[in-house]
Amino acid sequence: MLIFNCLKARVSLFKLSNKRFFVCSSFASFHSYFPSTPAVEGIDHLQTKDVVFSFKEWFKSRNNTILDRVFEILGCQDDDLASRRSAELALSQLGLRLSELFVLEVLNHGEDVLSCLKFFDWAGRQPGFYHTRATFNAIFKILSRAKLMSLMLDFLETYSNHRYRHRVGYYGTLVMGYAVAGKPDIALQLFGKMRFQGIDLDGFAYHVLLNALVEENCFDAIEVISKQITMRGFDNEITSSIRMKSFCKQNRLEEAEAFLRGLVSNGGAINGHAVAVLVDALCKKNKFEEAGQLVEDFRELGKVPMEHAYGVWIRDLVQAGKVDGAMKFLRTKKVSEGYVPDVFRYNILICRLLKENRLEEVLDLLTEMKEGQISPDKITMNAAMCFLCKAGMVDVALELYNSRSEFGLSPNSLAYNYLINTLCGDGSVDDAYRVLRNSIEQGYFPGRKTFSILADALCREGKLDKMKELVVVSLERNVMPSDAIYEKFISALCNAKRVEDGYLIHGELNRIKKVANKYTYFNLIRGFNKSKRGDMASRLLIEMQENGHTPTRYLYRDVIRCLCDMDNPEMQFLKLLEMQLSRHEPNCQVYNFFIDGAGHAKKFELAREVFEMMVRSGIEPNLSSDILMLHSYLKSERIADAMNFFSDLCERRRTGRKLYNAMIVGLCKVNKPDLALELLSEVREKGLIPSLECYEELVKSLCLNNNYSVVVKVINELEKVGRHISSFIGNTLLLHSLKSRELYETWVRSGDMDGEASPSGSLMLGQLVGAFSGCIRMNQHIENLDEVIEQCFPLDIFTYNLLLRKLSMTQIDYACELFNRICEKGYEPNRWTYDILVHGFFKHGRRDEAKRWVEEMLRRGFDPTERTKQFI
What we know:
This protein is an all-alpha fold. The protein contains 51 helices and no strands. This is Pentatricopeptide repeat-containing protein.
């Protein structure tokens, strides 16, 4: 038991190192979770193979190999004659010694109803064996539990054609069969018929009938049959138990208790089952105090075996959520009476403790079972698998799973879900996928959550062929993955430039009338756009509209740009426009989408054609139409056409701030800051205040042209109109300061470095420009430089990257401190953040640290820039 004791120590350490237990979310093998410690002897020597061996040794103690082989043969049998003969030959070669006890054991072991029926039929045809009341009753119960009543009734109607009818009373068997099948009226009719013919039931059949009448609440008939049993001297402990059940079913609990106590005082026939029946009834009425007292009273009497009553009491406590009470009762009875629960009670406790993540107690119970030589059943083995997954020992669980044929382990759906989820969390996605495929072959399909976890892992790791197989298998079984799974899969295919495969999956969805969500359409359309397949993108755009989804302006723009890059773009463009106009009542928005798309594709001719078409259709262009048309000229660098169109607009409509803003921003983006400045002056003369974007684009364009004297004037102008320095403007100034001292020198010559700071902080901004240019040494401590910047303009990750770049040139350690501050303040470092640090370490000759940062960068999904790669 050293292995299990060491396991307990490992679980204790696991609990200490993990404040919470996450169901099915183990992220590493148990070796990494449990470092060696002198406080726990033997842990250093505990290897996975030792743990696996210990569990295997215990699991093999079931000694059910022959039973497993029987059902393996029966499970492989098909309906054709050759297959049946082959299976019967294989069963005969096992050399089974058929007896009532063995047949009952086989039927009790089986989980598949059809296999049980096949074995029952085969056994009944073997020379020297004849089915008994007990074996018939067993197969009837199996059919009844499976709710296969029609099959059971067919069985009863045809069974008389078999020869074992002659060894078992025909009517008696039918009475039992119909009684168990929930047809007490037919059973009673047959009973009356056989009594009329002078035939009677035996004690076994009488009790089957009586129990069935109780189950079906036929209380009047119960009294009649009960008297018949008494008259024939068949009264025994079973009769008492069934009568107890009758009282409890009628909610006559006081009478039941009086009856029970009367049996004891009068020396009547009684066993632990009768006590258990009343205990169970009291618990179901939430009378746990009375039930507990009843258990103790009968224990003190010492006249009734209490093992069964103890088991029912433990089960009911657990089912009511009183697991602590159940554990305390078990411990007490184990110490005082040597009570050892059967495997079923252990299973109930283990499963409940697993649900509550009480792993140490689960291991205690598993250890008790092994020490007590209690053979585990399939539920125990599955629970042990779940325990190993929860305790971070997925490698042990996987090894046991791989060896399952050695000891007849058949994972249930819960164990499959635990194992697959944990393997995904552990990074063993291939193993998780293999387990899933095996589970499907065994008839289990994972729950929606497990399917989603595995699908997400496959997509994340780019195992798209396996993901495709997974989706196909699910569709073959009419299992519909969630929209989120389809979206992730199709998105992953598109990102991997396998948009055609994504479209095939989409086609399968259409085939089964499953409407894809709008994000799936977005991913497919963007994927075809990247593949230069504008024809497919436009087809999907129409399809998504037919399915009730509304494309965005940006989606229209991307599709139109792709169409304009194809052969004969005008025809493709106008065809899509015609289809859109046929779907909608012509309005400005539809035309605007196409003017915008053509403009971004730098096809001003098409944009103008759409604009003129709109006018010819009698639709008055709105302000957005005019601005989009203006942008179309500017993006195609048709400056003269843009200026002429703007002049026409000024004559046609009142030119407000929006139109001026659009023109100024557009001119800046095509590097015409001089024309933009003229318009800016014109706007100011009209008493209008340009947008902040106008100033941002002006500053950017002027800096690119090294026209720093005008930049300073624009900053001053910005202050005069009451605008604050934006992050975009501040970052632009600091970026150019890093490249050259010219901006700062111009700033000094302008005289803005003298006197007090303006309300918007231009003096402070000038000092920052000087600091970044290397012309001024900041008095403030370098680690607080971000706080200084924040006084001038709001910071963003771009600002921090600039500051990081400045620090990495001279003070790489301060740069590392700044990186930590960036993360602490909630900013998400991007590719440039990591690249700046890596580049800085290389420049300072600290190659080992640089390589560690490269590894971290790659783990985050970022690649170093070409500039940095030359150092690697």
